[in-house]
Design goal:
The chain has 16 helices and 13 strands. By secondary structure, it is an alpha/beta fold. The chain has two domains: 148 residues, ATPase, nucleotide binding domain (Nucleotidyltransferase, domain 5), CATH 3.30.420.40; 183 residues, 2-Layer Sandwich (Nucleotidyltransferase, domain 5), CATH 3.30.420. Helix 2 packs antiparallel against helix 3.
């Protein structure tokens, strides 16, 4: 009988899962999959560690499951798949730990209730992240659950980097810059020393370039500043999110265009970024392949804004030793990496085009003052590690 850990990442329209087997020191990925298209055209897929299809199911378009139906299917699948194994814990990706949770935590009903109190701070994602916790407490009460927060890793950043220049009473009420993608940055920080010891001990900027996009300044592998703030819409342009806007734009939209909070939310979360500027797609592959001038403009703006933000993060660190690219675009697009590296030439980044096209891991020349790397992220493994540690501590 093998011990296993399940990792869940529930979003607004999908629930992703991974199953890890516990080996001596590490965790082996056994299976991963998702149920996507919740409420619309739902499809369940599970694949083994080599990507081979293990199980799939589609639902009738007339009666697609929502979160709870999808979770019930997943629980049934886990019961069947892990019948000969022991499920020792479930780890959840939870977007926000509020002001209080600066570390992963074992969640029972009481802590779940407390976390639900943060929903007004992060209404778009947090309810979806917490639904599986509640469902599993109900259906598998004997299995311990651990919440891992996207905000926790940034707890080390100096208070000044977290403050907005609003009257202080707002900061006291929780309106501060939290920063996100923390599990991704924590994973990168945990492996950076294997690639570049000087960077792990010194100053690095990690660019997490996926559908969500942010960058984080690390000093000695601890977060010092992040481009994301109170919510995941601040900072860099993303697939469909605008990134930083002049707050005056929002006032204009309300006063002159009669837009309410929901309409503005739709605009800045769903209709902006690469999609909004290009009018073509939120997908970087599509934009890079497109002849459409607006698609090229969207890519140019993406690179330009990242280039500017690198200067800001390097300033927060007082210099730069290394640059790291991760997530979908960062791991796979040599073109975007090269363009960003070129915009950071003034910081001492000297890209090696051949190494970059080959995918790294090092993509700068040996004479480059600042090294640059491609390091695949692994948020699920980070959650599984935290889950294992907390469960072993509490046993
Ligand atoms: P998420 O943030 O949803 O986890 P990913 O990290 O998978 O997303 O990143 C998705 C982004 O990565 C998309 O914009 C996609 O176009 C981009 N991407 C994936 N592969 C490539 C590639 N070969 N070239 C350019 N962009 C890529």
């Amino acid at each position: 009988m093998r011990d296993t850990i399940v990792v869940l990442n529930a979003g607004s329209s999908s629930i992703k899962f991974s199953i890890f087997g516990l080996a001596d020191q590490e965790l082996d990925l056994l299976l991963r999959g998702q149920i996507e298209g919740l409420y619309t055209e739902a499809r369940f897929v599970a694949k083994d560690a080599n990507g081979a299809l293990v199980s799939e199911r589609t639902w009738d378009a007339e009666s697609p499951p929502g979160h709870e139906g999808a979770l019930d299917h997943l629980i049934g699948y886990l019961r069947y798949k892990l019948a000969d194994d022991r499920l020792v814990g479930v780890g959840h990706r939870v977007v926000h730990g509020g002001l209080d949770f600066t570390e992963p935590v074992v969640v029972g009903p009481e802590i779940l209730g407390y976390l639900e109190g943060f929903v007004p701070l992060f209404p778009l994602h947090l309810p979806h992240n917490l639904t599986p916790v509640r469902r599993l407490l109900d259906r598998l009460p004997e299995v311990p659950q651990v919440a891992c927060f996207d905000t926790s890793f940034h707890r080390t950043s100096p208070p000044i980097s977290r403050l907005y220049a609003l009257p202080l009473e707002y900061a006291e009420a929780g309106v501060i810059r939290y920063g996100f993608h923390g599990l991704s940055y924590e994973y990168i920080a945990s492996v950076l020393g294997r690639f570049d010891r000087r960077a792990a001990e010194g100053r690095a900027v990690v660019c997490h370039l996926g559908n969500g996009v942010s960058a984080c300044a690390l000093q000695g592998c601890r977060s010092m500043a992040s481009t994301m703030g109170f919510t995941g819409v601040e900072g860099l342009p993303m697939g469909t999110r605008s990134g930083t806007l002049d707050p005056g734009v929002l006032l204009y939209l309300m006063d002159q265009r009669g837009m309410d909070a929901r309409a503005i939310e739709r605009l800045i979360y769903k209709e902006s970024g690469l999609l909004g500027v290009s009018g073509v797609s939120s997908d970087m592959r599509t934009l890079l392949a497109s002849e459409e001038p607006r698609a090229q403009l969207a890519v140019e703006l993406f690179v330009y804004r990242i280039g500017r933000e690198l200067g800001s993060l390097a300033a927060a660190l007082g210099g730069l030793d290394a640059l790291v690219f991760t997530a979908g675009i960062g791991e796979h697009s040599a073109e975007i990496r090269e363009r960003i590296c070129r915009s950071a030439a003034w910081l001492g980044v000297e890209v090696d085009p051949a190494a970059n096209v080959a995918g790294g891991p090092r993509i700068t020349s040996l004479t480059s003052r600042v090294s640059a790397w491609v390091i695949p992220t692994n948020e699920e493994l980070m959650i599984a590690r935290h889950t294992r540690r907390l469960i072993e501590q509490t046993n």
